[in-house]
Amino acid sequence: MVHGSPGLGMLSGGRELEVWGDPIDHSLSPRLHAAAYRELGLDWSYGRRRVSEASFSGEFAALGGTLRGLSLTMPLKALAFEAAVTRNRHGELSGAVNTLLLTEGGPHGFNTDVAGIAADIADQGVPHAERARIVGSGATATSALLALEILGVDEVEVAARRPEAAQALVELGRRLGVRVHTVGLDGHDGRPVALTIATLPGGVDLSPSVADALAADGGLLYDVVYGHWPTALAQAWQCRGARAVPGIGMLVQQALRQVRVFLTGSDEEPLPAEATVLASMHAAVTEA
Prior knowledge:
With 288 residues, this protein is an alpha/beta fold. The protein has helices at residues 29-40, 53-61, 77-83, 89-94, 113-123, 139-150, 167-176, 208-216, 232-239, 248-264, 274-286, and strands at 16-21, 45-50, 67-72, 86-87, 99-103, 106-110, 131-135, 155-160, 179-184, 195-198, 220-223, 244-246. It contains 11 helices and 12 strands. Strands 2-1-3-5-6-4 form a 6-stranded mixed β-sheet, sandwiched between helices. The chain has a 6-stranded parallel β-sheet with strand order 9-8-7-10-11-12, sandwiched between helices. α1 (29-40) packs across α10 (248-264) and α10 crosses α11 (274-286).
């Protein structure tokens, strides 16, 4: 069930928030959210908790009334989707939510990753692209495809190790009105694209020949990885003198939308002095 906003009257008065995942020690979310709440003058706390797929149900059932909301990392996004009583459009389409707003009416789920990717790509100054490429076929590729819909892309090539595993993206493309076709990593059709979104996990090893072939006609590389930089793909782009951008901006933009949810009940309602809040969040993860 899609629900745009649970409404201010349903918002909890709680001041505690957490990010859950396994592993979780590396998460930058506490730093991002602390910067936002400090800028907004809110006396809210944001912690982290190690929660696995196996322990999610028990931890969630034991929550007290002081918690305002949760951020979820993989592999908990599908479980959070199931726990939500309502979900925003991107949550419904992706089958995953990374944000739960806890209210008296139940948990409301939001996928803010999609809008985060789209917003950061737009900030990179990418001209309108009729064609784009996604490298990878996992859960992040789904968010990437939804982001490309926001950006007005008409045709998407998905390059994956196992093209047959990307059929769900073809079906999603049909629902969105976006033409999607799949190829192997070494079998892309050679037609140039203005934008490539790489969704491979950090540390994935690509052969130099595959990486170079993708870079030859790939336009701007937007790699969602930010902790293992430069990736093999980014190095291939750089060797050609082409531009490659890490996904740290996506992380900030999706967190900004989480803050919107926790404050207003909507991921689309701008924050007070939002530009200043966003700048503080960027500084929190980019300055030493």
